[in-house]
Specification:
CATH topology of one domain: Rossmann fold
Distance between the termini: 132 Å
CATH superfamily of one domain: HUPs
Number of strands: 5
CATH class of one domain: Alpha Beta
Strand content: 5-15%
Length: 219
């Protein structure tokens, strides 16, 4: 009679899971549910609902950013519109005259024609301020200069305008322009770059003293 021998390879120190698989016929236990830490870190309670809630909370911030950007854009647009309105809604213009030419220089004539055209277009008034460091008595051709001013504005359609004379006061022309513009609450100052080039008006002080927009006309 013959005997059959079978060799089975068994680990010398089988694990508990291996022993259970060898000697138990019941199915393995189901895997544990997904775990997560709650706020107190005392237990593990993660679910898909909490993830969705957190995702919705996080998605709020980009909306705030977009809303803030839109608000800033609207604020800038309003500022631009106000600036544009200020340059298209003139009611009172100032025409400073600082040159000593009794018949007016080319730049002054250009400024007078531009002021008349703008005032006529927008239905505005014109104030002319004649500025000179000398006293009126020392200006032999002063009346000739006044006649030239009236003639050039009349050519632009303005027979009536307000005329101011600031002569021999010792103040800088730039400061006088700023004072007149402030006292009369003017909307626009029209001046030629010729006054800047001739050193009669200081461009830096002009930006500091003038409380309204200034139109500098190139030569």
């Amino acid at each position: 009679m013959a005997f059959a021998h079978y060799l089975v390879a068994v680990p010398t120190e089988p694990s508990n899971l291996t022993k259970a698989a060898l000697f138990s016929t019941s199915p393995p236990p189901p895997p544990p549910p997904p775990l997560s830490f709650n706020k107190n870190h005392s237990d593990l309670t993660l679910s898909s609902t909490s993830l969705k809630t957190k995702a919705r909370k996080l998605s709020i911030f980009p909306k705030f950013r977009r809303t803030g950007q839109k608000g800033k854009a609207k604020a800038k647009e309003s500022e631009v519109s106000l600036a544009a309105e200020a340059f298209t809604n003139f009611k009172h213009l100032l025409l400073p005259i600082t040159d000593t030419n009794p018949y007016l220089s080319e730049g002054t004539r250009q400024a007078a024609a531009t002021a008349a055209a703008l005032a006529k277009k927008y239905g505005a008034d014109i104030t002319v301020v004649v500025i000179d460091e000398r006293q009126k008595e020392s200006l032999p051709e002063h009346e000739t200069q006044m006649s030239s001013i009236r003639w050039h504005l009349a050519e632009g359609g303005f027979q009536e305008f307000k005329l101011l004379e600031r002569l021999g006061e010792g103040s800088k022309p730039t400061a006088i322009i700023g004072e007149v513009a402030d006292d009369l609450s003017l909307d626009l100052v029209v001046i030629s770059m010729e006054a800047i080039h001739s050193k009669h008006v200081d461009a830096n002080l002009l930006a500091e003293f003038i409380p309204c927009p200034v139109l500098l006309l190139p030569l």
